[in-house]
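Hey team,

Filing this mostly as a record. A colleague (T.K.) asked me to run one chain through the structure pipeline before their review meeting, and I want the input and output archived in the tracker in case anyone asks later how it was produced. No errors, nothing strange. Just documentation.

Input sequence:
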Amino acid sequence: MAKRTNLDFVSVQVRNLEAARAFYTDVIGFSPSDEGPEHAVVFQHDGTAIFAIRTPMRPLPEQGPLGMGTSLWFDVANVDALHERVSASAGTVLASPQPGPFGKQMTISDPDGYVLVFHEYNGGE
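Output structure:
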């Protein structure tokens, strides 16, 4: 039987670290951790997978969305409140709050075009 593998760290490469940091902290509400190297921003977590943004590890395309074919899902306490913050910041809402497989969810894109899904986990009910 294969060993079970859990995702424990995700970092996305961004074109402008300071702009991405501002988006994730000011708009989304993530809290930067004191951990991590200077070329990255690691966000605080509750013992689950760690999320970070970082400078490129290899050259990135100068234009167009990054992370095509990937979506990152985050459990949040209040999708509606986050939707209001993103909408008020001129953020890009791809799908407004609606029922989803893990509870109410909404989909946005960050300044680099990464697709982010935020959901209110309902325990699979």
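Quick notes for T.K.: The chain has a mean pLDDT of 91. DSSP finds two helices and seven strands in the chain.
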